[in-house]
Amino acid sequence: MKEKDVVLEHISLVTNQKYADLLIIHKEEVGTTMTRTLYFSKVSLNSQDVYDLYQDYDIRYSITVDILHMLKNGARYIDSDIYVDEDGIEHTREIIYILSIINKDDESIYGTVDRTTTVFVKQRDAETGELKNHAVDDTEEVEFYYDVLHEYIAFVTRRRFKKNIFNEAFANLMNSCSEKEELPYSFYLESYNYGMSIEEIKNYIKQIKDIKQLIITYRPANPDEALIRIAQEASDSERIKESNATERSIIYIARGSNCIDGSASIIQEDIDKLEQLNEGIPIEEATQRGYAAIKSVNEKGDVKSTTESKPFVRKIKEMANFVAEAKLGITQILGGFE
């Protein structure tokens, strides 16, 4: 019997999930390859500088230099959230994100982000024999490749460090570093996807049940080589610039027992306005990059977003090839999936 077969046989006998996970890791080391999913997100400006790009597209080079300078090894961002344990008891816990840079050149950064937080596990009390909650620090690491000049980042995820958490965490790290360096920039990340038409967006919203909150968001496009000319000509972008706003949202909230009806005419009309706001830029490309997005929250607090509906991903078999696969994926994006 081969060693990996022995490992599989042992797994079937293990009831404690913690030890089963350890054996699975060992199984991978002795010959079974695990396919990982490589995700991609668009890094965009959410500050007045986005309008400066419309006037002088070459300032993207100075912005790239500033980003490469401000993102330093060991940079950290501290967040917190409320955790409810199995007994229904709420706990406030601190979440620490730490940036580690493995390699940096004139256009990109390769590294990891650690997410350390407290998880509560059941342990049997030696004296009373009762199961009690105990706080344990848990750290998970996400590997990333950030093409700073072209504004795309590729990454893998972990069980407790998922795609949306990474997007928010990396944006917070960037904004914290920008503030520390007294730079004027503000950033956000949205998952890169295949885009949606207006009709697809409308049908998507109609199918979501038990909506308690619906947010329709538009942000001025961060122009790339494919969109700069269209963005410069977009008259509504100029109107928003006059207001000094870098984001425009319409929020629907349903309190009480009723839920939001996504098929209502007023909501469908507001969705139509997304095309007008980014006049000239196809809505598929606006949703693709997260400039136009619709987010819903249901009764249980579950969040759905148009940016997550059709994600662009690559499958990777060897993490040793991570950077090469990340570059290939970004090249595909820049080439329009050619």
Describe the structure.
The protein has 338 residues and is an alpha+beta fold. Among the domains are: 1-32, no CATH class; 195-310, no CATH class. The protein is 34% helix and 31% strand. It has eleven helices and twelve strands. The protein has helices spanning 3-13, 17-29, 49-55, 60-70, 163-180, 198-207, 228-233, 235-242, 265-277, 283-288, 322-334; strands at 36-45, 76-84, 90-104, 108-124, 131-147, 152-155, 187-191, 211-218, 248-253, 292-298, 303-305, 313-316. The strands form two sheets. Strands 1, 2, 3, 4, 5, 6, 7 and 12 form an eight-stranded antiparallel β-sheet that branches. Strands 9-8-10-11 form a four-stranded antiparallel β-sheet. A hairpin with a 3-residue loop joins β3 and β4 (108-124). α1 runs antiparallel to α2 (17-29). The longest helix is centred in the middle third of the chain and has 18 residues, at 163-180. It starts with a helix and ends with a helix. Residues 1-32 have low confidence and may be disordered.
